[in-house]
Amino acid sequence: MLLFALLFFGLPVPGLILYCLRWQLTRGASTYRRTVVLWSLSAVHELLCILLFQSAEMHAEMHEYAQWLSWGYTLGLVLSLAGFAEAVYSGQKAEMSAQQ
Fold first, then answer.
1. Which among 7, 55, 65, 89 is most buried, taking Cβ atoms within 10 Å?
2. 3-state DSSP: the chain helix, strand, coil percent, rounded to 5?
3. Exposed e or buried b for every residue in 23-62, given b needs 16+ CB within 10 A?
4. C-alpha atoms less than 13 angstroms from C-alpha of 77 in its C-beta half-sphere
5. How far is 18 from 45, CA to CA, in rounded Å?
6. 62: which residues sit within 8 A by CB, 6+ positions away?
């Protein structure tokens, strides 16, 4: 029962909140600082989920599904890090152009 509660309420809710906040980025309604914080939180969330699904307890209960979920969250981590890198690059580029 605890595993059910964790998988269906504990993990998706923070992920859905971060997903909804990222929609603000697509509309351009965010500052540089907020964008970096949002991508950082997304990366931390993905990393924690990877660590959770790589744990021995999860492998014992979920077998190969835990590995599949780990791969999915690893992909999410890569995308979050790419978004973070792009936000930092864009922010530095905008800062340099503002100084000139």
1. 7
2. 90, 0, 10
3. eeeeeeebeeeebbebbebbbebbbebbebbeeeebeeee
4. 14
5. 9
6. 53, 69
Picking from 30, 39, 34, the residue whose alpha carbon sits closest to that of residue 81 is 39
Whether 61 contacts 38, CB under 8 Å: no
Instruction: Tell me what pLDDT residue 59 has.
Output: 79
pTM above 0.85, yes or no: no
| Residue 7: predicted pLDDT | 61
pLDDT at 1 over 60: no
More confident residue, 100 or 53: 53
Pairwise CA distance, residues 25 & 28, whole Å: 5
**Positive or negative: CA dihedral 27, 15, 91, 89:** negative
Distance between first and last Cα of the chain: 59
